[in-house]
Amino acid sequence: FNTGKMFGSIENPNILTHRYEGWLAGAGISYGYHWVLGNRWGLEATIGVGYAYLEYDKYPCERCGRKIATESKHYFGPTKAAVSLVFMIE
């Protein structure tokens, strides 16, 4: 997180100067399909959507300070996508 980016691409410059503590709850559904490519080979694809609720407290630095704020966020949207090449071992 020392670049201000979370998980490689989500930008949040506050992550460099603030500490967050909280919890997350969520649920989702996914769908997948498998295609047979040969005797031992296959291809799988899956996609998922879901809902997440996040509630957290924000602090001014890593180990010090009083709580600045309590916030919550709602998220609904894609939660996973994958394409996998499968080799079956007997």
Q: Can you offer a commentary on this structure?
A:
- The chain has 90 residues and is an all-beta fold.
- The chain has one domain.
- The protein contains no helices and five strands.
- The protein has strands spanning 5-6, 10-11, 19-36, 41-59, 69-87.
- The strands form two sheets. It has a three-stranded antiparallel sheet with strand order 3-4-5, with no helix packed on it. Strands 1-2 form a two-stranded antiparallel ribbon.
- Strand 3 (19-36) and strand 4 (41-59) form a beta hairpin.
- The N and C termini lie far apart (42 Å).
The poorly predicted ranges are none
Largest beta sheet: strand ordering? 3-4-5
The count of DSSP E runs of length 2 or more, i.e. the number of strands, is 5
Tell me the series of helices and strands, N- to C-terminal. Answer: EEEEE
User: Structural class, judged by helices and strands?
Assistant: mainly beta
Helix fraction, binned, reads under 10%
N-to-C span = 42 Å
Largest sheet: 3 strands, antiparallel
Beta fraction: over 45%
Tally the structural domains: 1
Overall, the morphology is: elongated
Could you tell me the mean pLDDT? 87
Kindly provide the radius of gyration, computed on alpha-carbon positions and rounded to a whole number of angstroms: 20 Å
Q: Given the structure, what is the number of helices?
A: 0
